[in-house]
Amino acid sequence: MSANLASFLYLVSGVLFIMALRGLSHPTTSRKGNLYGMVGMAIAIVTTLIYATPSFNGFVLILAGLAIGGGAGAVIAKRIAMTAMPQLVAAFHSLVGLAAVMVAAAALYAPESFGIGVVGDIHAQALVEMSLGVAIGAITFTGSVIAFLKLDGRMSGKPILLPMRHVVNAGLAIGLVVLIVLLVTTQSHTIFWLIVLLSLVLGVLIIVPIGGADMPVVVSMLNSYSGWAAAGIGFTLGNLALIITGALVGSSGAILSYIMCKGMNRSFISVILGGFGGETAAATDDGIERTVKQGSADDAAYLMMNAQKVIIVPGYGMAVAQAQHALREMADKLKEAGVEVKYAIHPVAGRMPGHMNVLLAEAQVPYDEVFELEDINSEFAQADVAYVIGANDVTNPSARDDKSSPIYGMPILDVDKARTCLFVKRSLGSGYAGIDNTLFYKDGTMMLLGDAKKMTEEIVKAMDH
Hints:
It is a single chain. The chain has 465 residues and is of the alpha/beta class. The protein has 3 domains: 79 residues; 190 residues, no CATH class; 167 residues, Rossmann fold. It has a 6-stranded parallel β-sheet. The chain has a two-stranded antiparallel sheet with strand order 1-2. Helix 1 packs antiparallel against helix 2, helix 4 packs parallel to helix 8 and helix 11 crosses helix 17. It catalyses: NAD(+) + NADPH + H(+)(in) = NADH + NADP(+) + H(+)(out).
């Protein structure tokens, strides 16, 4: 295969990847977007295999790697629960970062195989590209591992605030720049591995101070990092497809992180440097009496069947309980009774961007009933019932009303403005941000304590009586 043909096919792959991102921007076109991405990746892989023309042994090793990786991916995809998707994404990001480190190491030890020079005389441009790729890749690897541990509950979701962390991080960043300059000038293998070591440490230190409420932004940010790592290595390899793909992933991840930070009224820099949420809950001296009104499934069924408009607010509690199918059944019952039903999605509900949208789509909830925060927030004041199912921090009025709250300024779904707020939750415990939700204690709130799926199923049964 000629170089021109390979470049053309890589360009076709890049166009398909762009079409995939465009398709994934809306639920109705997401399946087609996935298909574009799969076809584009298949073309890129086959083109690389043919253009590289490896030896027979090399070809066998490549096929073995594809079989092992593809087989493991297929098994994991089939077995993974939707509730575990955020930590799966974080784990996959770590593999992208590790791959970038390994490719950079291979290029350092066998540069002639990559056409970037010989050992001890590697092109300076290639060394810069290699250094950036390995640094970002190593940061992505350990950062993603920490994110996985936090999301999976194997590490506390609360911020781990180390003393003088900003000074340490700044020192490590400056040290990385110095080491990259030294690597370009000396081409020392020892300095290369020092860059890897410092980057691995920096990846840990960047993520551990970030609290659970910011985890969706972290997942998006790490996605961006993995893209830039891939792009950097793409320059080292001279692979157009990898450069295009990495740039697309890096830029789209950065844009998504910005959009999410804007949706939380948070500075992206403050998220990365400061963490969010402390080890203790927010102060409770807001004048609200600390008593709750607890109801039953029968109470909830009566209120909703006699309502004109019900807005459903799903959150991570729904995902954990896998209550989306029961929720859709409840909504169908309400619509049969002539009740208007809509779903309200907060941009950071769940543990990753689009988490709630995917779960609702899985339950075949009509797309035209699902609305984002800015499109539906004004409608809560006209709603008879807001049915909150496991969405805690994103409904906390403290973010709107209490200037002393750590989440003050974060846009929330104004469920407390509905005539009645039915809140389904296992207990009165704080959310992932570790902050007490004052919504529990408001006059218009009725707590439905219990498993989200069981409670919703009981409400459905009560609607038939």
